[in-house]
Amino acid sequence: MTPVELWDVVVDGAPLYAAPRDATYGRALARAVEALRDGEAACESATPLPEACRRVDRVVLAGGAAGHVRWDSSRVPAVCAPEPERCAERGGLAVLAGARGLVVDLGQSRLKILAGDGRRWSSPRDLAAIPISTRPVDGAGRAALIAFVAAGLRAAAGAGCERIVMALPCEIAPDGALGTCSYPWGAGEPIVEAFLAAAGLGAVPTLLVNDAELAAIGVAEDGVAPGVTLVLTLGFGVGGALVERAA
Question: Are 214 and 62 in contact (CB under 8 A)?
Fold first, then answer.
């Protein structure tokens, strides 16, 4: 399982995040994937792309907006995952492996939490209280963000919680340090510790996972063919992760 930063891959002279979300979006996504396969893709941020991108056999579309995309490629086939908006949930449950815990998916437009007993909690981001972050990050909306996530954690945890799997819409370094995204936290800032402390869950073991990677785990749980599958998560933006399965 390998995360792939695709949000700023340049397609026809413009980064993917700037592509119109209309009937042409499926073609823009397809052109980005075709460029990955050809070894010609480049990110606006110069982020290196995994070599395995050149071996992509197929695409699986996941996330809340997956059902609205009309894929347009004669070279790379694509399918929509079953219940695409719940791929991350399925991935999180697989990681919890039966433990009493929470699967937390902090998307850039909505917070979704699934408890191991099947209870769900979901709330949209209030963009007035938690605005799209500036660059460099000025921290506007940080207190509201902490209160927002902590409220969801408290509501979903109920009587107890043994483990948490938390998906975040940003790069996550091997040591757990976070990259930036549309939320008001700076690179490397311990914002997750602030979420957990405010919710009274600071002592609960918590695994941090890129949101696209957790969705890809869910797709893998559903079953994928041998080879390299690129999972694209579509919502506020686009994320990606590669699933490699031996023949």
Answer: no
